[in-house]
Write a structure and sequence with these properties.
The chain has 19 helices and 18 strands. By secondary structure, it is an alpha/beta fold.
Length: about 450
């Protein structure tokens, strides 16, 4: 629920309620994220978003003390709220930034959970900061959070950006709180060649300007890249990394964990192992749908690939994470025709079946409001099918390794095109003939032998 300040003033909570204050807010993932976290702990609570103009912050906080159990703050209130609070946690005071307020014993107490979310992102990737040389791109609020944690953990930090005066101001703020820290500034032309970790806290590379990047190459010793951006989930900066030797992470896990730690502060929330990872996958699903609409202006996620590539299995999982309905084209044809695919082939032949594919792929993509559609292995062989799909759908190729396809097909029956004496040889022949067609037709492709990784990469490919 998104409320204006006036609506919030008239709002009467029906149960325990928390809120996000910001200006402007527009689209925010926080209500959905906190609802998922409440569900994970069994908490009966609501979370709302409130548009609070800067001049109304004091009044909004006074109302929050009466109506709410806790609040989060985003731009432009993280610093402005501090004089209005009764107490501030030491790390939030050092950062001059509060993003979480708890109401305890008639007091409003400020915390910064962004730093906890960032720390848990590094911990998840087993990244140690002690003794490492870290390059920080940017000098705003997110940069201050990352810098503070790096210095507390014993890293040597280099801050850079387009405005070196602002970088120097952040350095001075950090050294005032941590006088013995190793913190320097540098121009982008003088980046040390031996930095090992790169952190991006700038908006460069964020949707819709996804081609922008704060760096054009990574120093050759970089082993980890963290980008606070999560739309897109794979940024231009992250694509500079060699995936064989450099780990990367976007900012969505940091977002999830800072929200989780806010709930721990508010009411002592404890999350079961894997609960936040499950929520993270659903958030990637929601982000995929948002990008499907906003970037591609499409309604459907459509999976193509050779038979046995995992389209149905992956499609069901992607549908569950995105909240979109799932349609398997082969099963749809069978339901409409009252015959199985082998029966259609046996009674009418392949050409008749291909005509049915054209008919029903056009029907599904035109009539459905939005779905995850799994195609048969030969559906993209006809250009008219591809054209119908691309009018409303983003076509993703599951480029499953051939050895995995053979293994999957060994468990499968009812494949009319493979009912030959030498099944393995016929499978390879068809695969080699069709693969270039798949690659030409698809908008993007995903490749991995591991199912869980395929699902994750499919969502991030959008």
């Amino acid at each position: 629920m998104l409320l204006s300040f006036e609506e919030f003033a008239a709002f009467t909570p029906q149960r325990e309620t928390y809120a996000l204050f910001g200006y402007p807010l527009g689209h925010t993932m926080s209500p959905a994220l906190h609802a998922a976290l409440f569900a994970a702990t069994g908490r009966d609570a609501d979370y709302i978003a409130v548009t609070v103009p800067p001049e109304k912050l004091a009044e909004a906080l006074a109302l929050a003390r009466e109506k709410l159990a806790g609040i989060n703050l985003t731009i432009p209130h993280k610093k402005a709220v501090i004089p209005l609070l009764d107490e501030v946690d030491p790390s939030a005071a050092d950062l001059h930034s509060v993003n979480t307020v708890a109401f305890r014993d008639c007091k409003a107490i400020g915390f910064n959970t962004d730093i906890l979310g960032f720390a848990e992102s590094l911990e998840k990737d087993s990244v140690s900061l002690r003794g490492k040389k870290v390059l920080l791109l940017g000098y705003g609020g997110a940069a201050a959070v990352m810098a503070y944690h790096c210095l507390c953990e014993g890293a040597t930090l280099y801050i850079t950006g387009r405005n070196l005066d602002k970088a120097e101001a952040l350095r001075a703020q950090l050294l005032a709180a941590l006088p013995h820290a190793k913190c320097l500034t540098c121009t982008r032309r003088r980046i040390p060649k031996d930095v090992q970790i790169v952190l991006n806290a700038t908006p460069l590379g964020m949707f819709p300007r996804e081609d922008k990047t704060p760096l054009y190459f990574l120093p050759h010793k970089v082993g980890y890249v963290f980008d606070a951006i999560y739309n897109p989930p794979v940024t231009a900066l992250m694509r500079l990394a060699n995936p064989k030797r450099t780990k990367t992470r976007d900012g969505l896990f940091m977002l999830v964990m800072q929200a989780a730690r806010a709930q721990t502060i508010w009411y002592g929330a404890q999350f079961a192992d894997g609960a936040c990872d499950s929520i993270l996958r659903r958030m990637y699903g929601q982000m995929a749908v948002k990008r499907l609409h906003d970037k591609y202006h499409k309604r459907h996620i459509v999976l193509c690939g050779f038979m046995g590539s995992g389209k149905t299995t992956v499609g069901r999982k992607v549908a569950r994470l995105t909240g979109l309905p799932f349609v398997d084209l082969d099963r749809y044809i069978e339901a409409q025709e009252g015959l199985t695919i082998p029966e259609i082939f046996a009674q009418h032949g392949e050409a008749y079946f291909r005509d049915l594919e054209t008919k029903y792929v056009t029907e599904v993509t035109a009539r459905q409001e939005g779905c995850v559609l799994s195609l048969g292995g030969g559906a993209v062989l006809r250009p008219e099918n591809v054209a119908a799909i691309k009018r409303t759908g983003l076509l993703i190729l599951l480029d499953t390794p051939f050895f995995r396809i053979l293994k999957n097909l060994s468990y499968s029956t009812g494949r009319p095109l493979l009912e030959k004496e030498n099944r393995a040889e016929e499978t390879r022949r068809l695969y080699q003939a069709r693969r270039p067609i798949y690659e030409q037709a698809a908008d993007c492709r995903v490749r991995s032998p591991r199912l869980g990784e395929v699902v994750e990469r499919t969502l991030k490919a959008i």
